[in-house]
Specification:
alpha+beta; BirA Bifunctional Protein, domain 2; Herpes Virus-1; Rossmann fold; 23 strands; binds adenosine-5'-triphosphate
């Protein structure tokens, strides 16, 4: 774990050093859990959003997009249940004065038992080599069995406490499990209290009678309240989906994990409207499709897993998370929920408007059921960076022996810069030639010109921001019209005519390569 935390720290400083993510308001010492994206970060983020948007709206002819306002009528949040139930259970350590989410402390304890089991298995696998039978080991090893029982017992007790919203029991679990504050190391805990995560502000001047409104904590409600607008104006037939990308705001209690948990973040949500009774089939379909979307990036299939929810939200009849193996363990990146007809019915009730759909095939009206896929752009951004970050030791063929390089092996379609154009020297007409090449290619993809420092240093800088291709312009280029293309991952180099550059690279950096791996729903 310590080693992983080390990687996480390195990743955070890498993000800052190379213009991916900066702490917000840094010259004023920052603002808790708020971050800004720099020149490379915004490109990567935009590419992730485009990947999601295109996968929804291009690959599915029955999914369309909208862009609804952040401010919405306050009754929407009453109807959605957020005013009454969008709470997290918080607990404070009296010695360190640090605040934690009680549920997260317990989940981490469950993960500790899981870690202990996995370590035993890893050790035994090494010891027994090819003859190792994991199944048999799990069923017979006393330490594995003991931890398995502890894990399961805790799991059941935790799920019950959550479902009963039993705050005293949550506290008792923390005490019984002897969970300590990681800062003070003590077990001096306060009571557990509920804390509403919505930010509020006022609209209009006080003379008008200002109205308390909320910054939306999810983009989904903007979709629900526009359901009929889109359905009617787009003549959409059920099943169909509405996709949206936008900012969301949550006053998170614990905000110590970089862009994983922010107070202002961005979501990519899609609500898919279906006939009542068909929702669980669609839930399974979207689960599969979304997992394919993640895996198509090629960061490693083993880095993803599903995690079914112990406690279903007030609106759901099935829910799962797609988790990614972050440097601090497997964590939720996306939630897939079967939200029933809760939201639309509730908006019918609170608004007094009819939000039913007339199904011409069934010749009947009903409130549609909804499958939601909801993914955080920032968490996705972090998973892509964590999955791409590598520290490599070079050998004689690629650098001086013992040299190291940090390289982001980003999927080329997501990389902020696709091609760096590097004149070998700053004179003899090479910079002019380089500029001429960029002027031709800049309409196809993002190019960057760099003439400073040795070519080796320039390659390292491009590796660090994940540029998949570099093209070096040397004196021969002026006569043979060829450049040396250098590949980021293999560090191989090859000579190619300038006229072929667009063809070679445009194809490799095209999003279509990844999109084709996802089957249409
Ligand atoms: P968690 O349990 O980690 O708080 P959640 O289950 O409340 O997350 P959802 O309400 O399902 O999250 O939101 C959907 C997605 O939005 C999440 O999968 C995550 O990617 C993203 N998200 C939620 N809260 C945050 C946050 N504070 N910062 C960044 N992304 C977030």
């Amino acid at each position: 774990m310590a080693q992983h935390e080390d990687v996480f720290k390195k990743l955070i400083s890498h993000c800052k050093e190379y213009g991916f993510v900066f702490p917000s308001s840094e010259i004023y010492d920052g603002l808790g859990a708020v971050y800004d994206y720099g020149q490379n970060g915004v490109e990567l983020k935009n590419n992730i959003k485009k990947y999601w948007w295109d996968s929804m709206t291009l690959l599915n002819e029955n999914v369309v997009g909208i862009d609804s306002a952040i401010f919405m009528h306050p009754t929407i949040w009453k109807a959605s249940g957020h005013v009454d139930a969008f709470n997290d259970p918080l607990i404070d350590n009296k010695d360190s004065k640090k605040r934690y989410r009680a549920d997260v402390l317990i989940e981490e304890q469950i993960a500790k038992y899981e870690d202990k089991i996995n370590k035993e298995i890893e050790k035994a696998a090494k010891r027994f080599g090819n003859s190792f039978d994991e199944q048999q080991f799990r069923e017979t090893n006393p330490r594995v069995l003991e931890n398995e029982v502890k894990k399961e017992t805790l799991h059941i007790r935790f799920a019950k406490a959550l479902n009963d919203s039993n705050l005293e029991e949550l506290r008792q679990i923390i005490i019984d499990e002897e969970i300590v504050c990681p800062i003070s190391g003590t077990r001096n805990w306060t009571e557990v209290r509920q804390f509403n995560l919505m930010f509020s502000t006022e609209m209009g001047s006080t003379a008008d009678g200002a109205m308390k409104i909320y910054l939306r904590p999810e983009t989904a409600q903007g979709i629900f309240v526009n359901f009929l607008n889109v359905q009617k104006s787009g003549r959409m037939k059920i099943p169909f989906g509405i996709a949206q990308i936008g900012k969301a705001f949550r006053n998170e209690i614990v905000a110590r994990q970089f862009v994983f948990r922010m107070r202002e973040f961005e979501q990519m949500e899609m609500q898919f409207f279906v006939r009542p009774g068909e929702e669980l089939n669609w839930f399974v379909k979207w689960k599969e499709t979304r997992m394919k979307w993640h895996k198509a990036l090629g960061l490693g299939d083993k880095k993803y897993r599903f995690h079914d929810h112990d406690k279903l939200a007030h609106y759901a009849n099935a829910a799962t998370d797609i988790e990614f193996e972050m440097p601090f363990g497997f964590k939720e990146v996306e939630g897939i929920h079967s939200r029933t007809d809760f939201d639309l019915s509730s908006h019918e009730k609170y608004s007094g408007k009819n939000i039913k759909y007339f199904d011409p095939e069934l010749n009947q009206s009903y409130v549609p059921y909804v499958i939601e896929t909801s993914i955080g752009v920032d968490r996705m951004f972090l998973s892509v960076l964590a999955g791409s970050y590598c520290e490599e030791t070079l050998d004689a063929s690629t650098g001086s022996v013992g040299d190291t390089r940090v390289v982001l092996k980003l999927p080329p379609a997501l990389a902020p810069i696709k091609l760096a154009i590097l004149p070998l020297v700053k004179k003899d007409g090479l910079p002019e030639k380089a500029r001429e090449i960029i002027d031709n290619l800049k309409f196809d993809f993002n190019c960057q010109y760099d003439e400073k420092d040795s070519i080796g240093k320039r390659y390292r800088r491009q590796d660090a921001i994940g540029t998949p291709y570099c093209a070096t312009i040397d004196h021969e280029t002026l006569t043979d019209n060829c450049v040396t293309i250098r590949y980021r991952d293999t560090m191989q180099q090859e000579r190619a005519p300038i006229s072929d550059l667009a063809g070679i690279i445009a194809d490799k950096v095209n999003l279509k390569n990844i999109l084709k791996k996802i089957k249409e729903v």
